[in-house]
Amino acid sequence: MMWKTTVLLLFLPHLLSSTGTENIKQLNQSEINVEFSDAPVKSQKPTGAVKGWDSCSIPCDITVKLLRDEKHSICGQLQQSLLAFGRSTRKLMRDVMEEQQRALDILSSQVTELMTKVQTLSSEVQRSNTEMYSIKPVQSHGRDCSDIKDNLMSVVPKIPSGIYIVHPENMDSSFEVFCEMDYMGGGWTVIQRRTDGLTDFKRPWADYSDGFGNLAGEHWLGLKKVFHLVNQKETRFQLHIALVSSDDITSYASYDDFHVDSETQFFSIHLGRYAGSAGDAFRGYEQEQNQDTAPFSASDVDNDGCNPFCSIDNRTVESCSTIQNNTGWWFNQCGLANLNGSPEDAEQNLWQKMHILWDTWRQNGIPHTIKSVTMKIRRIATNN
């Protein structure tokens, strides 16, 4: 009975659509009796069965209709899903774009605020610089390192060496110098130092006049500054030259009176009495080697006395600066001293590259190879 009921239910829609109510009545009165035995049927086929019965136990048009309905249902669901996905995607993109726009607006506001602050700070720095240089003069520590030492001795138990600001009495402005406060009583103003060969002393006149290098290391203070330091009223200065050889032997040369002339006289040097262990290379052994009172020379300002040339060691020399790698010094037909010297050969070792010349300091008749030198000046007592 269960299989009969199932078959009738499956056929019922088709019968309703094709035969109508009348057919139903006839169906009720007919002798159709489709039963399926609970027992298995062995290869029984109805006589005169319709072709295709094996592959379609349910009428094919019903199967097709069911599949079509299912396809339409699935397509409808898919279309709804796609529409919902599209709406959610558009909303997500809109939300992301709005969030990005908000972030850009915040960043733009921050950039504008930062630019305003930078402009304000720039204006304040410019105003501060203008006030500092045009209104407030730089406070100096003294007229020179000797003056600084004398001023600080009563208030500081130990005065450190380092960079100080000096203002010589005959100058309109201040400048920095390195003061050695722990060498032979202190109060020394360093005017030249060479220690490592890293600073190039191959320089024109303008550099030697104004100064170059690093005050805490290798440097040349500048002839203009030296002139103002040593030409202050009622002052005399001692020049001290400290030398160190490549094998760490030390020596010195000292002059009890030192000053230079103005630039119009090419900063000619003037030296007092010599004392020391390195020999008086400034004056040499012969008059033509004497550099005392000689004007300063550089590669582009030649005052070395070789007019038109000099004969040195059977060589013809037109410029002492040129043969000593365009360095500047108080040359006099070259002479025996050039603490700014530098050789032409760039392949030499570190100390030979510097080629500091103080020819009177010798060992076994051979000049020492000098690796470092310091030129410094200090006030000395006057008779006034």
UniProtKB/TrEMBL annotation:
What Gene3D superfamilies does the record point to?
Answer: Gamma Fibrinogen, chain A, domain 1, Gamma-fibrinogen Carboxyl Terminal Fragment, domain 2
Annotated Fibrinogen C-terminal domain ranges read: 136-381
Show the PROSITE patterns listed in the entry: FIBRINOGEN_C_1 (PS00514), FIBRINOGEN_C_2 (PS51406)
Name the SMART domains on file: FBG
Annotated CDD domains: FReD
The organism's place on the tree of life at top rank: Eukaryota
* Gene Ontology CC terms, in alphabetical order: extracellular space
Q: Name one Pfam family in it.
A: Fibrinogen_C
InterPro entries, A to Z: Fibrinogen-like_C (IPR036056), Fibrinogen_a/b/g_C_1 (IPR014716), Fibrinogen_a/b/g_C_dom (IPR002181), Fibrinogen_C-term_domain (IPR050373), Fibrinogen_CS (IPR020837)
Q: Which UniProt keywords apply?
A: Disulfide bond, Signal
Leader peptide range in chain numbering:
1-18
What is this protein called in UniProt? Angiopoietin-like 5
* Source organism of this protein record: Labrus bergylta
